[in-house]
Amino acid sequence: MAAGVCLLSGLTAAEAQVPAKQPPAAPQAATQVAPQAAPQAVPGFWDPRRRPERPDLSRLTVIRFLTETDYPPFNYTGADGNPAGFNVDLARALCDEIKVTCTVQMRRFETLVDALSSNRGDAIIASMAVSPQLRARVDFTDPYYRVPARFASRKDAVMPEIRPEYLEGKKVGVIAGSAHEAYLKAMFTDAELHGYPNDDALRSALRKGEVDFIFGDAISLAFWINGTDSGDCCAFSGGPFVESRFFGEGIGIAVRKGNDVLRQALNWALFRVWEKGRYTDLWLRYFSVSPF
């Protein structure tokens, strides 16, 4: 195949969101779909053969997490007014594993790195994509999730597998100027590409049958497919595509440059939370239809 597909391990390829994110759905959308197909679709991003050593945790007394205000289901304000979402629950699980007090402060996404640099927090857990530009300002943990790219089609035209030769002459919609468009231009050279300015226009084109497929961020697409906006029109076709050259290194937790004590503690705790099954429980709670 022309692209790597990763269902069980994140070791061979990576995928990331761009920091300028668009929320995939409201928080309650994660509970609208039937969970029966989810357990076998939970991705794993850690290699059980590469167990990190337990670091010295004695110097950690509190971790002040920073997250963003409105990116459901990853971060949002809960009904009780407190921070909620996948990232928030994962932060609390990490603090529980490290046995340290944990606080979570919500801020606008564009202010998070400056807040970290000025010591108004210790770590950013906000679906932040690892990039060379950000690595110049902060250090990152290992990726704790990745965002695959996937094709979606109308339900009457679903394909179990997609290869470049299968889409010869097919109309494929994609966001113009995006990494997804660049990937299609490089790998799916015989498809007929149609660029759209935003997700609403792209998805509307598929609903109306103006294109045969659309290609984009699988997490966003998963919530759209299973939400009310899609009108139950569409479904995923083929499996996930991951390619670090186009889609980045993954989503990590950011810490201040040189804070290896905290970074290593978080890497150890991430592995432990995954090894104990708590990560899987969280994933299924928020992503009962898997983007993988």
From TrEMBL:
This is Amino acid binding protein. It comes from the Bacteria. The keyword DNA-binding does not apply. InterPro entries: Solute-binding_3/MltF_N. PANTHER family: L-CYSTINE-BINDING PROTEIN TCYJ (PTHR35936:SF35), MEMBRANE-BOUND LYTIC MUREIN TRANSGLYCOSYLASE F (PTHR35936). Residues 62-290 form the Solute-binding protein family 3/N-terminal domain. The lineage of its organism: Bacteria, Pseudomonadati, Pseudomonadota, Alphaproteobacteria, Hyphomicrobiales. It holds the Pfam family SBP_bac_3. Keywords: Signal.
